[in-house]
Amino acid sequence: NAGVTQTPKFQVLKTGQSMTLQCAQDMNHNSMYWYRQDPGMGLRLIYYSASEGTTDKGEVPNGYNVSRLNKREFSLRLESAAPSQTSVYFCASSGRTGPTDTQYFGPGTRLTVL
Amino acid sequence: SQQGEEDPQALSIQEGENATMNCSYKTSINNLQWYRQNSGRGLVHLILIRSNEREKHSGRLRVTLDTSKKSSSLLITASRAADTASYFCAAFMGTSYGKLTFGQGTILTVHP
Fold first, then answer.
1. Alpha-carbon distance A101 to A97, whole Å?
2. Chain B within 8 Å of A5 (Cβ-Cβ)?
3. Which of A40, A96, A105 sits opposite B43 (nearest CB)?
4. Mapping DSSP to helix (H, G, I), strand (E, B) and coil, where does residue A37 land?
5. 114 residues of chain A, pLDDT tens digit each
6. Extended beta strands in A1-114, E state
7. What confidence tens digit (pLDDT) does each residue in B36-84 have?
8. Which chain A residue's Cα is nearest to B30?
9. What is the predicted pLDDT for the residue at B77?
């Protein structure tokens, strides 16, 4: 099993460009998450999907949209990239949204917006 | 603001020594989780402690939780160079959705 995979690993964008970050999991998990990690800030939740067909905002959703394409895939879209969106983006999944559930993380996408 | 505040921000020790990292949080939690992140990689779950538990062990890891002080600590005993990583606490609030709130992390360096 690959676990949680993310593409691309690295991306450089110019301000105003758009792009989609892809995430897939092969663990048959119900819930998926997108986080961003900035230096000294820990991880902050952007959006999450408790189950296929549902999405909800996290702590920092502005400037992003998501799509839960099917149970396996959860994509994050930047419609008009800004330098403030320079960050490392992590996708995660968990079996349930219950309180004792562990989240499994992908390797991350390092995004630079010039 | 971050639910979890970690202390210290960075810790440098010699192999064989113990490493202690602390985490404080602001509101009531259902459980508190600790994750590890190696440089350039994703996070890996280490251990979870429920709000009704006071101490939990997993191998060389010992986690304590003091809900009256809203704090937790992670102890790594007999550290190894391979333990060099960033360690994050994450607070789980609520009951029915899987949103974790992460602290800013402690960077641990273990010198051989």
1. 7
2. no
3. A105
4. strand
5. 689 999 999 999 999 999 999 999 999 999 999 999 998 778 999 999 988 889 999 889 999 999 998 999 999 999 999 999 999 999 999 886 566 678 899 999 999 999
6. 4-7, 10-13, 19-25, 31-38, 42-49, 56-57, 64-68, 74-78, 87-94, 104-105, 109-113
7. 999 988 999 999 999 999 999 999 999 999 999 999 999 999 999 999 9
8. A99
9. 97
Distance of alpha carbon A67 from its chain centroid, rounded? 10
Sequence letter at residue B27: T
Instruction: Find, in chain B, the residue whose alpha carbon is nearest to that of A60.
Output: B1
Beta strands, E only, B1-112: 5-7, 10-14, 19-24, 31-37, 43-50, 55-58, 61-66, 71-76, 85-92, 100-102, 106-111
What CA–CA distance (Å, rounded) separates B44 from A4? Answer: 12
Q: Which of B42, B88, B104 sits opposite A108 (nearest CB)?
A: B42
